[in-house]
Write a structure and sequence with these properties.
Length: 294
Amino acid sequence: MGKKRDRLFLGVTVGATLLAVALVKESEFTTGAVVCVSGEEANRPPASDGRFNLGRINWLPPEELTPPMSVFPVSQIPTGPTLQRALYVAEQVAARVPHGEPWSPYLTRRHFRPEKLILLYRMEALGGCGTRAMLTTLELLAAHIPARVVQWALPGTGHVLVEAWIPELQRWVLIDPSFGLYLSSDRGPDSVSTLQDPARRASLHWVSGAKPAAGVNQSSPPLFDQIQKIYWPEPWLLSRRGPRALPLFRSTFAVLSEDGGACLRWGAKRSTLIVSLFLLAWATVRYVRRRRST
């Protein structure tokens, strides 16, 4: 009777583990782990080869961008200060993506490739803030300007923006391609992590630097006091080439936190997978021991 129970338990555990693996591999950001980063860590400059890390996330190494993906030829980007070049890119992307119901497969299909999305938006399809942020990031990376997607959690909704590394300022600067704005404080163009600085937060304001996307309500840019969380998604979610298989046991979001890297939280589906794996290991060991004892 004991052997039958062990076999049954082992079979159920194997099945539950396989189901958990399938759920995690086919799911998107809802399964991801979250690692906390401090404002200081979020503002670290990229390396000389363009690589940059945030928490435990290695952001788009150069080999992931060969050949570069871009909505329009990089040669069209004018020379000049990096911030002006980044704002030009944001404006060109906004001009190609009028506001409307976005085409969603790049968020819902694991095997969707960003190249297809770029081909679609070269024809000026409707899109949302996430689409513009993704395409602006890819265009900036293709132009060798380090960039990353930023997500704001707002009450009942959210907003997606871009941070670009501005070497002249030696800091990241937050750009909103949808509204044609960039973040500024009493020290000039600034990064999203400034929201964590009480001394500087009061001086934060938006500056118009580019034309907004057609159809965007220009009177309602996101308010700083409504922001609940600030996330940087791991690039597989929005801008990595190839199949976007969820990286197992890796952080998929970095979140701005005063605690820095002190926290690590898993999504519900990922936690289910971890528990299932532990149960599978325990059931296997128990089953093997019983077999040897007979």
